[in-house]
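Hi L.,

As promised, SDR family NAD(P)-dependent oxidoreductase:
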Amino acid sequence: MASEQRTIVLTGASDGIGAIAARALAGPSTNLILVGRSSQKLAPIAAETGATPFTADFAHLSQVRDLAAQIAGSVDSIDVLMNNAGGTFNPSQRTADGHEPNFQINHLAPFLLTNLLRDRLAAAGSSLVLNTASVGNLAGSVDLDDLDFDRRRAFGGRTYGTAKLMNILFTRGIAQRWTDDKIYSAAVHPGPAATSFGRDSRLVGLAYRSPIARFVTITPEQGAAPLIAFAERGADPSINGVYFSRHKPNGLENRQAHNQRLIDGLWEKSAELTGLN
C-alpha cells in the first residue's frame, strides 16, 4: 500500500447516505474499509468501490469486538473513522447484550469500536473521528442512572434523540481526551435524507415514507454531502468537538450537550458497560 494512501473506515455503508459516501470517497488514494450489518447488501458496494468489507451487527457487542480486531489486523493506521451506522429501533425490545437498542446500536457500539481502534487512529499522526448525529438530539434526555430507559417512559423519538445526544457528548469526550494523540472529533447532522432510515421503527418509517415526506426531506445525495466533505477534510483541530448541522458549525443542540458532568459520566458508564475499564 502506497504511503500517500489514506485509510477511511465507514460504518453503515451498505445503503443510504453511507453507500453514497462510500462511492464518492473511493479511489486510488484511499484505502476504504466499509462496515455493514448485511454481507449481501454490503458486497456490491464493496465490489463497486474496491473497498474491503467487514460485517457486524451492532446489537451484539461481541461482533463489534471482532470487527475492531479484524480492522486492526488489516491496517496499521486509520486517518478517518466515520461512525455512521445506526437508526431508530423499537425501545421495548432489547439487544443481545440486554440494552435498549437505540442506546446500544447508536452509541455503545461505536463507542466501543472507536476506543478499540484508538491506537490505529493515533498511529496516523493526525486523524478524525466523525460521528453521525441528528437534530433529533433536541428530543433527547440523558440520565446517567437510567441509560437503558428501565425506569423512564421509553418511546421512539425520545430514545433515538437521547442516543443522538450521546453521539455529541461522545464527540466532546474524544475532543477533551485524545487531542494529545492528534485524534480530533466532530459530529454532524446530515439532514433529513429520504433513505431507508427508520425501517426498524414503524412510526418513524411511516413518517419517512408518507407523501408529505418529499416536501421536508432532502435527497440521499444531499444527505451524504457533509459526510463526504468532512472525510475529505480529515483531521482538523478547528472542528474538534464541534457539532455541525450539515456544513454549518454549532447546529441546534440539546441544553445537555455541553454538560461536563454528562460528558464525563457517559464516557465512564459506557466504558464500564463495554468492559473497557
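The CA atoms of residues 75 and 147 lie 34 Å apart.

Thanks again for sending the construct details.

K.
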